[in-house]
Amino acid sequence: MIRVYVICEGQTEETFVRDVLAPILAHRQIFLTARGINTSKGHKGGALTYERVKRFVINSLKEDQNTVITTFFDLYALDNHFPDFQQSYKFTDIYQKVALLEQAFKADIAENNPSFIERFFPYIQPYEFEGLLFSAIEKLTELEADWKKTTADLQAIRNNAQTPEHINDGFDSKPSARLKQHLRNPKYDKVLHGVMAIENIGIDKLLNECPHFAEWYRQLNQLNQFNQ
Question: What is the mean pLDDT of residues 177-195?
Fold first, then answer.
């Protein structure tokens, strides 16, 4: 049995881990628990400084030496104090960019205690959680009756990107902004609709469409080798 804490950026990611990923991996004796980071008294998620993140990760690693720690953060609006943040701009390839950030993040945590390196593997989603929803537009737009008329426009956005993870991080062109522009009656609500859409799309479609997410999922599935 493997216990995994997934340190999440916000409520939607926590719900996704709890309701979608955890039940799947539990069948492999890999038990996921989503954890949010307090940003202020009584509030979690959003505006996470690297200092706060690092402290939370290290405390979680110290809390239980038999627990593996991972993360679920968006690349969009990531705090620029994350290790090698400025260096990441030299890459135009999104996967090279997030790989550098994840590796630097892991190394910085392990610098505190070399034993942490075996129990910590960060995940940074390019560019946002909402990018995953572009994996199957028709499954997203069927959630609400009035959304169906937006299917062609959203599909065109998906078709213009190499993968859903390539839909970029401009203020008006990031995945969440695209959804809010098109899904208006009712308005797209990340907490309400995000996980509903993922459940409708299905994990297999996410894995086929989103290579970086698929690699993280593969790492999670391989954790049952941790105790072998």
Answer: 95
pLDDT tens track for 108-139: 999 979 999 999 999 999 999 999 999 999 99
Q: For residue 190, with 0-12 CB atoms within 10 Å meaning exposed, 13-18 middle and 19 or more buried, which class applies?
A: buried
Determine the Cα–Cα distance for residues 217 and 211; give it in Å rounded to an integer.
10
User: What does the chain come to in residues?
Assistant: 228
* CA-to-CA separations, 111 to 3, 58, 104, in angstroms, rounded: 23, 11, 10
- Tokens (6 digits) for 75: 């690349």
CB 115 within 8 A of CB 109: no
What global pTM score does this model have?
Answer: 0.94
Q: How many Å is the Cα radius of gyration of the chain?
A: 17
User: What are 56's two structure tokens?
Assistant: 């939370």
